[in-house]
Automatic annotation (TrEMBL):
Ribosomal protein recorded as keyword: no
InterPro entries in alphabetical order: SRAP, SRAP-like
EC number: 3.4.-.-
Lineage, highest ranks first: Bacteria, Pseudomonadati, Pseudomonadota, Gammaproteobacteria, Pseudomonadales
Domain of life: Bacteria
Identification of the protein by name: Abasic site processing protein
Length: 218
């Protein structure tokens, strides 16, 4: 799954790669971003428009679902295109969430040990997401997950869907709505490009997200 992540260098790098016009000061560096908070993403509202920055509540609940409906933070790639809850957003409201890495917890004899997972080349991670308007008019999102691959599978059986560079443009293209077409043109990043290491259990406190030391090896 993807339940906590870090984003400190990824935002400006991905913004430049996508041609996003951004303010001089981007979002602050955060090293332990939990669900139920505001995160920054990118979307494209028309085929001939430039991608743009948007603020997203990490928790997906379309306004038609009303207040007591589920508010998932993740959507599985296996069902996102066919689920009544997600399929419209998958077809017409896709986004990218920039990250430098994410956290998973490995069960050990001494309890759950957090691990930080990132790219071996330290390039930005482009997480595939979907979004919808919420009851209050804001936008809420879910991050897509898939079966874990490469060394990520050593820590957890799921991982975020991370797009390769050639997939950024088609993933954001709102004119690309057919499920099978999306499947054929969108690719995940090669599983050999990930690594992980154990980190401090201070990560377990979701309010603690300003300390760069949280991603250092324990």
């Amino acid at each position: 799954m993807c339940g906590r992540f870090a984003s400190y260098d990824a935002y400006p790098k991905l913004a430049r790669r996508l041609g996003v016009v951004v303010a001089e000061e981007g979002p602050p560096a955060r090293y332990n971003i939990p669900p139920g908070t505001w995160i920054t993403g990118f979307r494209q509202v028309a085929h001939d428009a430039q991608p743009e920055q948007l603020e997203l509540w990490w928790g997906y609940r379309p306004k038609w679902a009303k207040g007591k409906a589920a508010q998932p933070i993740n959507a599985r790639v296996e069902t996102v295109a066919t689920s009544g809850y997600f399929k419209y957003a998958f077809a017409r409201a896709r986004c990218i969430v920039p990250a430098d890495g994410w956290f998973e917890w490995l069960v050990t004899d001494t309890g759950k040990q957090p691990h930080y997972l990132t790219r071996t080349d330290r390039e930005p991670i482009a997480k595939a997401g979907i979004y919808a308007e919420r009851e209050d008019g804001s936008l809420g999102c879910a991050i897509l997950t898939e079966p874990a691959r490469g060394t990520a599978a050593e820590v957890h059986d799921r991982m975020p869907l991370i797009l390769d560079d050639a997939s950024l443009e088609p993933w954001l293209d709102p004119d690309l709505t057919d499920r099978e077409t999306i499947r054929h043109v969108v690719r995940h990043l090669d599983g050999s490009l990930f690594e992980h290491w154990p980190v401090s259990r201070a990560v377990n406190r979701p309010g603690n997200d300003e300390d760069a030391g949280l991603i250092n090896p324990a």
